[in-house]
Amino acid sequence: MRFEHLGAEPRIHPDAVVAPTAVISGDVTIGADAQVLHGAVISAEGGPIVIGEHVVVMENALIRATSVNSVHIGDHSLVGPMASVSGATIGEEVFLATGVRIFNGAVIGDRSEVRINAIVHLRTKLEPGSVVPIGWVAVGDPTRILPPHEHEAIWEAQRELDFPGYVFGVDRDTPDLMVQLTERYARSLARHADDRRLD
């Protein structure tokens, strides 16, 4: 299913294959010989998404751009089942395994691997050829790659990255943080009310 969003329509190369149950919304460009499988959602929420040639986006993956952070996925990369990429730059020949989470402002260098259920946090930069092990967390710039049980070290680095401020423009110390965050986000998402289905 293709949707016009914010006046922009997806541009899909004629040699790309998009499953009929995938959702492609807004300013999305999909390159030659790319494959987008069933249940995948690729949604440009105010910023563009560019998916290169021979990219595979597997079942139920979510790729979302924002007005602050666009998405670029380089040629010959794979986005695994149930993976989530939000406002990030993914290099060429990158492997994002099942269930990975890539957050806003992250940069993943060419030929890197982010393995099953691993996380690349907000504004984290992975150098080319990096590996994030199964279930581990990459955080910060310079990047620290930590096992999930080192929560305090992850939180120390993550706190400085300021997720609510960077993504939602809300001060973490605001007493009604979740009220402001959800109201602001809901207003932004309400722009889908005017979407137009193209197929």
Automatic annotation (TrEMBL):
Chain coiled-coil ranges: none
Q: Which InterPro entries match?
A: Transf_Hexapept/Carb_Anhydrase, Trimer_LpxA-like_sf
The domain of life for this entry's organism is Bacteria
PANTHER family xref list: DYNACTIN SUBUNIT P25, GAMMA CARBONIC ANHYDRASE-LIKE 1, MITOCHONDRIAL-RELATED
Q: What is this protein called?
A: Gamma carbonic anhydrase family protein
| Source organism per UniProt | Agromyces seonyuensis
List the taxonomic lineage.
Answer: Bacteria, Bacillati, Actinomycetota, Actinomycetes, Micrococcales
